[in-house]
Design a protein that fits this description.
Strand order of the largest sheet: 2-1-3
Number of strands: 3
Structural class: mainly alpha
Number of helices: 4
Distance between the termini: 41 Å
Low-confidence stretches: none
Mean pLDDT: 97
Radius of gyration: 18 Å
Helix content: 55-70%
Order of helices and strands: HHHHEEE
Strand content: under 5%
């Protein structure tokens, strides 16, 4: 293995640890373990620092235009190839919760690809996105610009659940 192979593996591990420790922090807080929650939160942030630095080591942060192009490609692959096969397998195995999560992610990734494409068009013309607000569905990851629908078109949660991204 090369140093770049090691950096790629380390990035994947650090990114996963960040998400895992963030969830562990929330669970500890919900169970009343405030300081354990803070410890997990600190560790999660430390793992994010490692992952961020590794992205730069691997030279994976380009111009905004390059980053958008790569993001469109990645999201498109996820909704066209990766998640459909995951949904199919979950269905075969009778894993209904996994099937739901994969389906929500697949549909949200398609939305992400479209939003990134809009952003790419704007950036290619030297402009920023012409939106006033960006909202996120905390259940499925759907992204909406400017207005929130009465309920999420992907998972059905009510508008009040959406979070505005600052």
């Amino acid at each position: 293995m090369t140093t770049m192979d090691n950096a790629k593996d380390a990035f994947a591990g650090e990114s996963q640890a960040n998400r895992k420790y963030t969830n562990f922090s929330e669970k500890a807080a919900a169970e009343g373990f405030t300081n354990v929650s803070k410890l997990f939160k600190a560790a999660a942030e430390a793992e994010a620092i490692h992952a961020k630095r590794l992205l730069f080591v691997m030279q994976k942060v380009g111009s905004t235009e390059e980053n958008l192009k790569g993001s469109v490609e990645g999201e498109t692959d996820e909704f066209e190839t990766m998640y459909p096969s995951f949904v199919e397998m979950a269905e075969k195995e009778g894993e209904s919760e996994a099937k739901t999560v994969f389906t929500h992610a697949m549909k949200a990734e398609e939305v992400h690809a479209k939003k990134y494409t809009e952003a790419l068009e704007a950036v290619s013309n030297g402009d920023d996105l012409k939106v006033k607000k960006i909202f996120l569905c905390p259940v499925c990851g759907n992204i909406e610009f400017d207005e929130i629908p009465e309920q999420c078109p992907i998972c059905g949660v009510p508008a009040r659940m959406f979070k505005e991204i600052e």
